[in-house]
Amino acid sequence: FPEENGEITYELYTQGDTEEDTSVHSQGRATVGSLNSSSPLASSTLGATPRVSSLDLKALQSRMNQSGSTEYMPEECYEAFKAMGIEYGPAHQGIEKLLVREDEVLAKLSLPTCVLETRDQYTLHPSLLDSALQASIGLMLGKEGVSPKLALPFALEELIVQTPCTDTMWAWLRRSE
Fold first, then answer.
1. What does the angle CA 152 – CA 9 – CA 18 come to, to the nearest 5 degrees?
2. Cα separation of 46 and 37, whole Å?
3. Residues 12/24, Cβ–Cβ less than 8 Å
4. What's the pLDDT tens digit per position in 16-56?
5. How far, in Å, CA of 84 to CA of 137, rounded?
6. pTM for the whole thing?
7. Dist CA 31 CA 35 (whole Å)
8. How far from 28 is each of 101, 161, 171, CA to CA, in Å?
């Protein structure tokens, strides 16, 4: 829903037979625009366009490959989802591998071949975005005494899109307090 202040509000829900049967799953607001200097991720100099700092992927991969880390292949991830009652179709199976170390996950994601021709239709391809969220299963896999259970992020403070998705991407996830 477009708002007068330029924001967009949204609500995702399942419509029931009556208003009482309607279930709201998500709601929020978005602002379309460029990164401003008040963003905690921005660094700017006078007259320059604010930029978001990049992660050092090679250093992150090196740290995640040290002893004490575990690598999970896609079959293991999607079997764990299946055991929880979720069966992702081929278009939403973008996890190529997970590297798990303590309370963080580095996920290699690939756009599934069955949706490859839709790559240029999206800035954030739904298959890759969903796969990045799916990678959170790595925070539960292999934890002693912890059975993987359904969990979804419930809040997103800020999303900054630097460039459109590519066929292969990396997602870094870690627990927050």
1. 75
2. 10
3. yes
4. 888 888 888 777 887 766 544 444 444 333 334 445 567 89
5. 11
6. 0.69
7. 11
8. 32, 18, 23
